[in-house]
Amino acid sequence: MSLPLLSMMLSVFSIGTAESVIAGILPRIADDLDVPLSTAGLLVSVYAAVVVVVGPLTTLATGRLPRKPLLLGMLGLFAAGNVLAALAAPASSYALLVTGRLVSAFAHSTVFAICLTSAGELAGPGGQASAGARITLGFGLAMVLGVPLGTLIGNTYGWSATFWCIAAMSLGCLALLAACLPADRRRPAGGAVSELRVLGRPRVLRAIGITVLCSAGVFTAFTYAVPLLTEVSGFGETAVTVLLLLYGFGGVAGNTLGGRAADRSLLPSLTVTLAAVVAALLLLSAAAPLAWPAAAVFVLLGLAYFGTIPGLNTIIVGSAEVGSPTLALSVNSSAFNIGIAAGGLLGGQAVQSGAGPRAAPLVGAAVVAAGLALCAYEHKTRGGVAASALTDPAPAPAGSAAAASAAAPPAPSDSLPATAAKD
């Protein structure tokens, strides 16, 4: 892996850890700041709300800025948010902690979208999904390594130490990217209007819809995976912790394999992985009373679900065609969070219906099946073209900014290579 890709992956690892580690240190935060646990839990909701609502607006507002300085600035803002969160411990200030979380979340979607777009440009046609998979691997590693380590650090040295570590890592990524990421000297051709037009394309909307349905279906089951594995499958708490870790490792493997498959044939591979998610959810419900078959299917669910993520992000880039995909990617990041929230609600209703935890995977399978049908429709309308065809730019209208850019002399050697993902 090249140093720029590694640096961007670690940046995503940092934001993924910051988003999720709060759950592991929430009881200590509530005790130290003398607030109810439910009040401390708002730190999760506030972060997610800012990512969903403010993230795309920030990306839209900064769409005309050169990407490298924007990425460095957003990483600096993210680090500052974590410093504020760390300072909330000695100040015993819940308000300061909330402010730190707000500032960090403000940069979340834009950092993720820029890293994905830049990785695709560095890779060039035919390698965008694999490059994107390396970036999204940061989120998988955050779940497998970042959250457990951050929780351990917080419980051992105090929760402020967790935020200090995240701030230090993000500043380290900033320094690495400042040194190794090629500069993008091209000024983006489009503005806010062109970015918003991208979101109005039916293909982009369908791609975002697939993302929402897939994540909602999986998290309908995953939110209630622990009661399913303990109450129905009969595993103890220690065994469930190991299974969650194995789920994460399955996700890391699935993310890598999904990126390679999407590079070879985007829509067919995405259709297959979505079908695998549906099958895994159905099998999880059926095998739940049998401990080890249920455990195996649970790990396979992680493999299948994370295998869809590179394809879901790459289809956004392809659907954006000659427009900038950065805003669409930011909205797609919000779509994952919307799906996660919706999945939690659906899972709760399924469990409370009287059918118990086994109902959650069945409901989730139905939701993902709707996403699979949407993906199959997209495959049919595009004629089953490969990923390269999806990411090659359509001809720009004569006299347009994109056409002028295409006719311009080659960029300096230190600029990002031009691809269809270009802003």
From TrEMBL:
Bias kind Low complexity: ranges: 397-423
UniProt-listed PROSITE patterns: MFS (PS50850)
Full protein name: MFS transporter
Top-level taxon: Bacteria
Region of interest (Disordered), residue spans: 395-423
Taxonomic lineage of the native organism: Bacteria, Bacillati, Actinomycetota, Actinomycetes, Kitasatosporales
Domain Major facilitator superfamily (MFS) profile: 4-382
PANTHER family per UniProt: INNER MEMBRANE TRANSPORT PROTEIN YDHP (PTHR43124:SF8), PURINE EFFLUX PUMP PBUE (PTHR43124)
